[in-house]
């Protein structure tokens, strides 16, 4: 399991939630994995109470499933939940990129340009894991540019259902067309071209559908 630094002022519950979410999305905690409260609380250096609170939060979004006398398990990937999360993501991302096209400032454009340039660099190196990390940072930066940071944070738990499939897609598909998607989205934002930006967002968020058969073939035990 990946570890992360605990931020100054970050509660034990929020820290546990951050670590669990990151490891579930990255598939370091694979679908179907038993969540050991004793082991994880010891690893994180926190008591079991805040960890349980984080588990309850994730169970409300059906990311973790609890079975009496058996324990808490990372939920298998449910195609219905993936589609609902993708729908929410599409609604939010299209509105947010329109807002970014209208009001983005030069500093935020520089952040996005640096991000996409790094993606292109890692594409040449074939580093899919780094591209996925930058992918998340790219989308969050657009929300920040549109002054919609709170919406991004509020939707992040529901997005786990979709983000796990995105992780599998990056691992399965080798040409990583998402980098070209991001370059196109950035150029549309620079030109204040809302119509093209929205088209690119829809194309980008539908990519996993093109890969679904291949993903299921490679990871059949991860799905309901």
CATH superfamily of the largest domain: GntR ligand-binding domain-like
- Name the CATH class of the largest domain: Mainly Alpha
β-sheet strand percentage: under 5%
Low-confidence stretches: none
Query: What's the helix count?
Result: 11
How many structurally independent domains? 2
Mean pLDDT: 92
**What strand order characterises the main sheet?**
1-3-2
Distance between the termini: 23 Å
How would you classify the helix and strand content by structural class? mainly alpha
What is the annotated CATH architecture of the largest domain?
Answer: Up-down Bundle
The total beta strand count reads 3
Q: Biggest sheet, in brief?
A: 3 strands, antiparallel
CATH topology of the largest domain: Four Helix Bundle (Hemerythrin (Met), subunit A)
Morphology call? globular
Write down the Rg: 18 Å
């Amino acid at each position: 399991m990946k570890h992360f630094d605990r931020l100054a002022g970050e509660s034990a519950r929020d820290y546990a939630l951050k670590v669990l979410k990151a490891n579930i999305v990255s598939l370091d905690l694979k679908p179907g994995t038993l969540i050991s409260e004793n082991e994880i609380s010891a690893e994180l250096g926190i008591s079991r109470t805040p960890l349980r609170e984080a588990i309850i939060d994730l169970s409300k979004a059906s990311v973790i499933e609890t079975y009496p006398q058996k324990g808490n398990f990372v939920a298998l990937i449910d195609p219905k939940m993936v589609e609902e999360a993708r729908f929410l993501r599409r609604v939010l991302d299209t509105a947010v990129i329109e807002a970014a096209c209208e009001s983005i400032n030069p500093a935020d454009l520089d952040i996005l340009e640096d991000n996409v340039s790094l993606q292109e660099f890692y594409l040449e190196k074939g580093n899919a894991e780094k591209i996925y990390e930058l992918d998340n940072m790219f989308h969050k930066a657009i929300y920040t540019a549109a002054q919609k940071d709170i919406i991004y944070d509020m939707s992040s738990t529901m997005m786990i259902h979709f983000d796990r499939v995105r992780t599998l897609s990056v691992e399965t598909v080798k040409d990583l067309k998402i980098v070209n998607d991001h370059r196109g989205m950035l150029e549309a934002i620079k030109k204040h071209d809302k119509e093209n930006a929205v088209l690119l967002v829809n194309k980008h968020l539908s990519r996993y559908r093109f890969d679904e058969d291949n993903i299921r073939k490679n990871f059949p035990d991860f799905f309901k």
